[in-house]
Design goal:
This protein is α+β, with helices and mostly antiparallel strands. It has one domain. The protein has 4 helices and 5 strands. A hairpin with a 4-residue loop joins β2 and β3. α3 packs across α4. The radius of gyration is 17 Å and the shape is globular.
């Protein structure tokens, strides 16, 4: 499965941002978890495109909109809710795929709660990848991880990592 994971870091250039993220996640995964670094977009709108992977770095507004659409469209996962109802009706009726649906449903709902409770995101439509994380450090998920200290010098860059797991 392919997914986009954004890693936000603070450096002077897009090239430095990609290099920094490459070094920080180099040991993550195994032979079945490989990745491409597609490039990076700065908070001010600069684009560094490596021409690799499935995602092309483009305007930061487009990237934030993509994450907002993902959050909003998946917020009410009916499949998970239907599986809960199925379980309540007959706990023995669930199959392995049903439990997987419940797991995905619970993980996603946990991330939404984290955004609202701990990251002060009142509305999903206000998600900003430079301020919020999603499935942080879980590189095999569509998400956003922050790897910088506020006092570091440089500009914030969103590095596009095309993950295969």
């Amino acid at each position: 499965m392919h997914n986009l994971h954004i890693v936000v870091t603070k450096t002077e250039t897009g090239e430095d941002a990609v290099s920094s993220v490459r070094s920080s996640i180099d040991q993550w995964g195994d032979e079945n978890n490989w990745r491409y670094f597609c490039g990076a977009v700065s908070q001010s709108g600069k684009i560094f495109d490596l021409g690799k992977g499935r995602w092309t770095p483009k305007s930061i507004y487009d990237v934030n909109d993509s994450f907002r659409c993902y959050l909003i469209s998946n917020y009410d996962l009916t499949q998970g809710e239907e599986t809960i109802q199925k379980y309540l009706a007959d706990p023995n009726a669930l199959k392995s795929a049903d439990y997987y649906n419940l797991q995905c449903f619970a993980e996603f709902k946990r991330e939404i709660c984290d955004l609202k409770e701990y990251q002060n995101l009142e509305y999903l439509s206000n998600f900003d990848l430079f301020k919020h994380t999603l499935f942080c450090q879980q590189f095999d998920h569509f998400g956003v991880t922050h790897e910088f200290q506020k006092e570091e010098e440089g500009e914030l860059w969103a590095v596009f990592v095309d993950m295969h797991s």
